Each structure stands twice: as C-alpha cells, then as structure tokens.
Amino acid sequence: MRPNSTYRVAGPVLALHLVLSPAGAVAAEGALTFTPPRISGFIQPHFTWEPGDEEQAGEFHLRRLQVRAAGDLGTPALGYTVSLELATPRRPLRECFMGVRGLGHELRFGQFKVPFGWEFPVSVTQLPIIDFSVVQPLSIGRDPRDIGLGLFGTIDLGRSWTLEDGLAVVSGEGANTADTTPKKDVFARVGLLRGQQLRVGLSAATVEFTREDTNIVERSTRVGIDLGVEHGPVRVLGEYARAWFVKPEARTAHAFYGTVIACVGPGIEVLGRYEQRVPKLGADERLRFLTLGANYTHEPLDARVQLNYRRNLEADNNEDLLALQAQYVF
Fold first, then answer.
1. How many other C-beta atoms lie within 10 A of the C-beta of residue 35?
2. CA–CA separation, 146 and 273 (whole Å)
C-alpha cells in the first residue's frame, strides 16, 4: 500500500455521502436515505515543566485537536469514520475506515486502532493520567493505529456480563505508512465485563516493523492482560505486557502499571500510578516512574482539567515532570 493510500479513502467516501444526500432532497419510496455525518471532537491544550531543568521555564503547546466525522451510507449496516488530528497538520489522518455492522459487531476496512489492552484502544479523553504508560512499546509496538481489516464487537452474556472481542490483521507499519515487511501483523483481544464494576482482558499479537531510527526490521510476539475494578468511589486499573523478540536478536522484556483513583468530591479525583519496564539482555534501559495527580471534570460542559507530577525513579539527576492539561469534548 502506498503512503498516501489511506488519504484516498476519505475523499471518495465523503464525496459519495454528499452527492447522494443533497439538502432538501426527498427520497423515493423504498430508496435508501442518507443522513448528515455526525461531527465530534476534542481539544487538549497542554503545559509541561521540568523542575530540574534550569534553562527551561516550561512549555505551552496544543497537544491535540481532533475532529471526527462518522455516518451511514444509506443504511445503519454500512458506515464510515474519518478523524483528523489538526494539532499535527503534517500527518493529520488518524482514523479512516469503512464498516459493515451487524450482530453487535463491526467489520472495519481501512486505518483504525488495533485491539490490544485497554489503555491504547480507548479514547485518550477517558484516560485518568495525561501520558501513556511504559507498557505502550511492549503492547502495540510503534503506533496504536494501523492499516488493515478488523472485527470489533460485544456479546451480551446476560446478568450484567458482556464479552468484548477484537481481531485485526494489519500491515504493521503504523498509520499513514507504506508496508515494507513481507508479513502482516495480527492483534487480538478478548475481554469480560460486569457492568462498571469489573473488566478483565487478554491480548496477543505478532509484531514486525522497520525501526525508523536504525532501519532494522524488528519481529516479536506479545501478550498482555488488562484489569479494571471499581468499588464505590475507588477505581483500580492495571496492565501487564510481555514481548519475546526474535529479530534482530533474541531478547525478552516486560512492563506493567497499576493506577489507583479515588473520587473525593463532585467531579474531583486524586490518583497515583506506578509503572515499570524491565528489559533483559541489556536491550533497553530500565524505566520506573511514579505519577501523582488530580482531575476535575465538569460533566455539564464535558470539560476536564488534569494535573500530574511524574517522578523518574531511575534517574541519577532530577528528571521530574509537571504537566497540566485541559480538555473540552464537543
């Protein structure tokens, strides 16, 4: 697939939608009817400061500004989704796929998030902590989005139990990137939910991609488990991932995090996360972080403010990070 092939999906899909659903048109009896696309998105202005860096007074930037359009192509069983990241205009395309829906599932063809774990498939607007954990490199590889074919859905098991399932076959090179490896990557996740009180998920993947820094092909097999428990005002989240690398050299690594969140008032949460990545055979440096923070959510406006302080437990010098982020969902 050529590098700009995913961009060519959005144009024809939206053009077809607009041509077939002109304003004020009256559908003939028995004909398919088209509705305007549903527009949504969010904005996340961001500030970071490293207390140990005497030469830096902090940094303001617009971290994310995403706009999403989704609609049906004449029937709820056939639809499309396109999302753009306008804060990074050089490569703005995030998701772009067509979907066939039925029996509680959607078959996606295009560019989408791969199914592995909980932290990365879920929307970043729902994450309790600003930054992703160190589990990311050992779960999805390089990019949470890729180009391919995927099946996603849920099955109602009754008595508040739900089965989540996801399976995807993708190029393995990440979003908006040409496929340069001879094999395809496979991602799969199965999860079990009981209302809002319990979530347990198991994931597995085969990952092969060309590293941008060294131009070396890396191949590995990865497994993971994710857990979420909610009891009263307290939530506990955790994930563990392990990778077995066979190319360019044999090595293993694993990573995990645990997060505790407590609601202490209307819309106010305090939280803490411990995370660690442990390589073997000297493949990468050992990473350990402790993050403490607070969130305030104003539900009527769908707005949130997050404050995090991250302590690097492996640094010889002061490499702490203070981060402040606001969020508005529209």
1. 11
2. 28
Give the C-alpha separation, 122 to 137, whole Å.
16
Is residue 138 within 8 Å of residue 242, measured between CB atoms? Answer: yes
In the numeric block, which tokens belong to residue 289? 């972080």
Which sequence spans correspond to the domains of the chain? 75-329
Q: Please write the tens of the pLDDT for every residue from 103-139.
A: 999 999 999 999 999 998 999 999 999 999 999 877 7
**CA 233 – CA 230 distance, rounded (Å):** 8
User: In CATH, what number does 75-329 get?
Assistant: 2.40.160.10
* Omega before 248 within 30 of 0, i.e. cis: yes
Burial pattern 166-182, b for ≥16 Cβ within 10 A else e, equals bbbbbbbbbbbbebeee
Give the phi and the psi of residue 8 in degrees, each rounded to 5. Answer: -75, -10
Dihedral through CA 116, CA 143, CA 310, CA 312, nearest 10?
A: 100
Q: Cα–Cα–Cα angle for 226, 274, 236, nearest 5°?
A: 45
Strands 268-279 and 198-210: unpaired
Q: What is the pLDDT of residues 218-265, one digit of tens each?
A: 788 999 999 999 999 999 999 999 999 887 778 888 999 999 999 999
**Structure confidence at residue 177 (pLDDT):** 80
Residue 19 has pLDDT above 60, yes or no: no
Residue 70 contacts residue 90 (beta carbons within 8 Å): no
